[in-house]
TrEMBL record:
Highest taxon listed in the record's lineage: Eukaryota
Binding, ATP: G107, Q108, T109, S110, S111, G112, K113, T114
Compositionally biased residues, Basic and acidic residues: 552-570
UniProt keyword annotation of ATP-binding present: yes
Listed name of the protein: Kinesin-like protein
Renumbered residue ranges of the record's region Disordered: 552-574
Length: 927
């Protein structure tokens, strides 16, 4: 039970999937159809069923159903308002409570997609503004953007520049478009006007694209950030952030009819290409955009529009088939909570208290059930993420605080409304001080460095070093929250790995098995740029000095004659007063006071550079809106960082604070803020450290937990997990003297860890791809590797011990027997065998065979080689060679270019359910 807007709303017991809401809208026969004596063949017999009225021939009867059932079907006399209220409102308004949403229209040309979507968009915007108006106690930040996809080119509809944009996978927001213009406007009608102005200007500049634009996919996007107090009790500094997409797809018939249609041939190919006639994810821009809507972190509503005319029966059947497929797709929407540093520090403090108490009473923390095991895995992922975030944040903290802030006048009508520009261009800095005082929040600008989007994309690694990423696609991969397998994927695609060959590694899988981990790192390309100068220069460069503050919705909601949204004139009038929607099953939907409440929160790092990185997925029902109880529950779920991580903070070790800009003798107000915040964090860290200094205490605690039947042989390894405690801590406190000695010590510790990890990989049948990537990535050059090594070791131990005790290891909440992991390994070796044949020339293969002692008279030599890879865990050279070969075959990104942070928790790729995969494939084949 949680409270929203003063009301308590029932929650599900845990995060669970939710099906896409699918409705069908039948339009009336149009003049053209009437004039050629076309007849209407379809009839909605009730709110959920549409039937084909014409008699089906015997052969047709076996091929086509006569009746189709959906969440809702709308007869041809239904108004767009009704379609909105009953088919899209709940989904669209999810955005105000921090849940991503997508509403899209699908159907053949002239079936009424634009007619429907323009209305849906209008009504949604009106309701969103009404909601904001009624909830002045909450702060809202709204930003609009619009894109068009045609022929695999993405164009910014809010820009007069027709240069195609590129995609970027953003860990927090999914697929976004590079340099996309985002506008904060005072109301929706202004956005429409802006769109039409831009469109008109583009038309003046170029005529050829206009024809294309009428057949493009159009996506309007609204991103809302809002205060999260309603959801997180008294937490003033965390925010909710979500996006709603309104997608007006181009005519669905293109996939089947466009092959001969000249100019559309290219797009048709893009859409229907694929080995099995379906599009694997990421093969098209559209599918990438829709990816999260089809099984991701978003609520989705699809409205399938259809003509009733007999002459269109074939297309209409296709549309209905698509709609039937869509019904099967499940999404997993969560509230997206962006935490500030302050909130993070508080959580760490609570975590510390909890850990201390756990250490004192280890018995209480012992894992005793399956659900506890699942929690343990989730916990580990959180711990790992936290450790990473600490390292990164401490590095950036002072620099980020130097970022200048500007104040934007809050309008009197929306006193809590914050305004900011493009995501890519400006990042808000939450002024936690002000927020605490419940005052207006400044808006900060982090300069955007356009050079970072050139061919030499740059980002900083956790040590603040620049990493050059040569290719944009690769850049996007690095930012992908999906774990290591995402990286292989894109490369695999480029290298023509057949998805069937590596079923386990397909995108949808990586997405699936990473969902729980939610490794969302926020190394934005622009995060390297700070400072006023750069900011102002960017403002000049980008011409982004204007801000429009959203005012109360007292402006008349004009109906502009926007060429892109011409049907708005036909809408029912936009309501001035918010009307409580009445939703019925299967969506027992939101009332205005019962906004959709997700089953879980997703905590992400604030876009504010000063904010902490936390990626936590936990059930909302575990949180209570009452602050005090929320903390208790939160603590329960949120169990802190691994011991290893807790002890390794580059900030302490390298004393880099002294070297950071602004941390010298100048004590500006920002500095004191920095210092205050740093001090708080350091205090937490040190407290944390001191609480864990007693290695024997920890060992004892672990020993107590592990001294159970079936858990054997862990003590030797365990001692190594604990060993670095002193080392890192000491080095941290005494950075200079201990350096040389520390390095040696670290190196031997690293080797030790590596040996044990390698052994356990074999024992646990861990994926070869994972082993290779890990092996290549963590070479012991960087002491912070210990975080990852220890987390890896701990997880492996956990897996091994659990599988030893119950012969069943739990991965991502799914049972995986030893037999299935062996099977996975076999499949992986088969994939590598195929890759050996595909990727390597005969000559290269021959050389490899020779090097690996596979003589020419042996049969199935590639397979033999694949089976020898990673077979000898004693020989470092063998493993290094194995890793290199696997990397080459699978197409890793260069390890040195890869982000360690993206290293996920999963050992072996988990296959998503065949059913879901099948549906996704079918779904995409329609688009
Ligand atoms: N439910 C409806 N009631 C009345 N008229 C409709 C309805 N749906 C569509 N129309 C009319 O049908 C025509 C085509 O509609 P619309 O442009 O929305 O189709 P579309 O599917 O977007 O086509 P395209 O894919 O070619 O852009 C328009 O003139 C529109 O006014």
């Amino acid at each position: 039970m949680v409270a929203v807007d003063g009301q308590e709303i029932m929650q599900g017991s845990s995060p669970r999937e939710e099906k896409i809401f699918v409705s069908v809208r039948l339009r009336p026969l149009n003049q053209k159809e009437i004039s050629r004596n076309d007849v209407s063949d379809w009839e909605c017999i009730d709110d959920n069923t549409i039937i084909y009225r014409n008699n089906l021939s015997v052969s047709e009867r076996s091929m086509y159903p006569a009746a189709y059932t959906f969440d809702r079907v709308f007869r041809c006399d239904c108004s767009t308002r009704q379609v909105y209220e009953e088919g899209a409102k709940k989904v669209a308004l999810s955005v105000v409570s921090g849940i991503n949403a997508s509403v899209f229209a699908y159907g053949q040309t002239s079936s009424g997609k634009t007619f429907t979507m323009s209305g849906i968009t209008e009504y949604s915007m009106a309701d969103i503004y009404s909601y904001i108006e009624k909830h002045k106690e909450r702060e809202f930040l709204l930003k609009f953007s619009a894109i068009e996809i045609y022929n695999e080119s993405v164009r910014d509809l809010l820009s007069t520049d027709s240069t195609p944009l590129r995609f970027l996978d953003d860990p927090e927001r999914g697929t976004i478009v590079e340099k996309l213009t985002e506008e904060t406007l005072k109301d929706w009608s202004h956005f429409r006007e802006l769109l039409s102005v831009c469109e008109a200007q583009r038309q003046l500049g170029e005529t050829c694209l206009n024809e294309a634009s009428s057949r493009s996919h159009q996506i309007l996007r609204l991103t809302i950030e809002s205060s999260a107090r309603e959801f997180l009790g008294n937490d003033n500094s965390s925010t909710l952030a979500a996006t709603v997409n309104f997608v007006d797809l181009a005519g669905s018939e293109r996939a089947s009819q466009s092959l001969s249609a000249g100019a559309r041939l290219k797009e048709g190919c893009h859409i229907i290409a694929g080995r099995n006639g379906h599009i694997p994810f990421r093969d098209s821009k559209l599918t990438r955009i829709l990816q999260s809507s089809l099984g991701g972190n978003a609520r989705t509503s699809i409205i399938c529009t259809m003509s009733p005319a007999r002459s269109h029966v074939e297309q209409t059947r296709n549309t209905l088939l698509f709609a039937s497929c869509a019904k099967e797709v499940a999404t997993n929407a969560q509230v997206n909570v962006v935490m500030s540093d302050k909130a993070l520090v508080k959580h760490l403090q609570r975590e510390l208290a909890r850990l201390e108490s756990e250490l004192r009473h280890p018995g209480l923390a012992s894992v005793s059930s399956d659900s506890a095991l699942k929690k343990e895995i989730a916990e580990l992922s959180v711990q790992r993420d936290l450790a990473q975030s600490e390292v990164q944040d401490l590095h950036r903290l002072v620099v980020d605080h130097k970022t200048s802030t500007i104040s934007v006048d809050a309008c009197s009508d929306y006193p809590k409304l914050r305004v900011r520009g493009s995501w890519e261009l400006k990042v808000p800095i939450l002024d936690t001080q002000n927020q605490a005082d419940n005052e207006y929040v400044d808006v900060g600008i982090i300069p955007f460095d356009s050079c970072q989007y050139s061919d030499q994309h740059s980002r900083s690694d956790s040590d603040g070093h620049m990493i050059h990423i040569p290719d944009f696609e690769e850049n996007s991969l690095l930012f992908n929250p999906s774990s290591q397998f995402s990286i292989q994927l894109s490369h695999s695609r480029r290298n023509s790995i057949c998805p069937e060959d590596i079923g386990e590694y397909t995108d949808e899988n990586s997405e699936d098995f990473c969902r729980e981990v939610r490794c969302i790192e926020t190394e934005k390309p622009n995060s390297n740029c700070h400072g006023n100068d750069a900011m102002s220069s960017v403002e000049e460069k980008e011409g982004i000095s204007d801000y429009i503050v959203v005012k109360e919705g007292d402006e008349e909601k004009e109906k502009s004659g926007s060429p892109t949204l011409e049907e708005t004139r036909q809408l029912d009038s936009v309501p001035q007063d918010y009307v409580e929607p009445s939703f019925e099953k299967p969506y027992s939907l939101i009332q205005e006071k019962e906004l959709p409440i997700p089953r879980s929160f997703k905590l992400i790092r604030s876009k504010s550079c000063e904010s902490g990185l936390v990626n936590i997925s936990f059930p909302i029902e575990e949180m209570e809106m009452n602050h005090s109880t929320a903390l208790l529950r939160y603590d329960k779920e949120y169990s802190g960082r691994p011991q290893g991580c807790r002890r390794k903070f580059p900030l302490l070790k390298y004393g880099y604070r002294e070297n950071l800009p602004g941390s010298g003798s100048h004590n500006s107000p920002e500095d004191s803020m920095d210092n205050e915040l740093q001090a708080e964090i350091i205090q937490t860290v040190e407290k944390c450290d001191s609480s864990m200094t007693s290695a024997s205490e920890i060992e004892e605690s672990i020993a107590q937990q592990e001294d159970q039947p079936g858990q054997h042989g862990v003590h030797d390894i365990k001692s190594n997990v604990i060993a670095p405690t002193k080392h890192v801590k000491d080095v941290g406190l005494d950075p200079i003297e201990d350096d040389a000695e520390g390095s040696l010590e670290w190196l031997s510790h690293f080797k030790n860890l590596q040996k044990q990890i390698v052994k356990l990989w074999k024992e646990c049948n861990v994926s070869l791809v994972h082993r290779s990537y890990f092996f290549l990535l963590f070479k012991g050059c960087d002491p912070t590797d210990s975080i990852y090594m220890e987390v890896e070791l701990r997880r492996l131990l956990f897996l091994r011990n659990k599988s030893a005790s119950c012969n069943q290891a739990l991965e991502d909440g799914q049972a995986s027997t030893a037999a299935s992991s062996i099977q996975d390994l076999c499949r992986e070796r088969q994939m590598l065998t195929k890759q050996l044949q595909k990727k390597l020339s005969r000559k290269d293969r021959e050389m490899l065979f020779q090097a690996w002692g596979i003589s020419s008279n042996m049969k199935h030599r590639s397979s033999q080689l694949a089976h020898r890879l990673w077979s000898n865990t004693e020989d470092m050279d063998h493993m290094a060679e194995s890793a290199k070969i696997v990397a080459k075959l699978v197409g890793f990104v260069q390890p040195e270019e890869a982000s360690k942070e993206m290293f996920g928790l999963n050992f072996t790729p988990r296959r998503s359910s065949t059913k879901l995969r099948k549906w996704k494939s079918t779904m995409m084949s329609f688009l």
